[in-house]
Amino acid sequence: MDKKTVVESSIKLDDLKPIKSETVDLKQFNNKPVKIEKVSIIQVPSNFTPLKEGSSIDHIPQWVMKVESEVITSIGEGDTKIEFRCSELFNLIQDENGALKGYPQNDKSNLTKFLKDVGASNPTELVGKSSIAKAYEKEYLFDGKKTTRSFLKFKY
Questions:
Q1: Domain range for residue 88?
Q2: Residue 54 included in any domain
Q3: Whose CA is closest to 93, among 109, 108, 107?
């Protein structure tokens, strides 16, 4: 169905009732203590890695370390349940072919700053450490209109 298709219904406007939908103001969790629950290594799309061989537009995915807090709050139930937690992606070091080499260990890297802030000497010590939640907003273009979304990350 394209955007120009109109679907008619036999539902009467008088029968349509308002339903209070659930929302969460993530700003209420700003500066709250949180515990780190998960650390994983994943690949994400990137415009900052070399191009894939033979391509002029597709880049090699970037290896990152995803750090997540415990669930701070949730709304909904079952299949519609949405969980909110702090999360952060830290770039890892990979070679020009995209093979993962390791993690940065210089004083200016965000991962090094984060490890120091939570009292961990390396990423394997992160699970169970405490940090502080940071709520922030980001603007997006959605259907040609600017919209603002709230997110949670770690303060360091």
A1: 23-155
A2: yes
A3: 109
Residue 7 lies in a domain: no
Cβ burial 64-90 (10 Å sphere, 16+ → b, else e): bbebbbeebeeeeeeeeeeebbbebeb
Tokens standing for 77? 């139930």
Q: Which residues of the chain carry a pLDDT beneath 70?
A: 1-8, 19-21
Write the pLDDT tens digit of every residue in 19-58.
Answer: 666 788 999 999 999 999 999 999 999 988 888 888 889 9
Q: Is residue 11 part of a domain?
A: no
pTM exceeds cut of 0.85: no
Q: What is the tally of structural domains in the chain?
A: 1
Residue 53 phi, psi dihedral angles, 5° rounding:
-55, 130
In a domain, 81, yes or no: yes
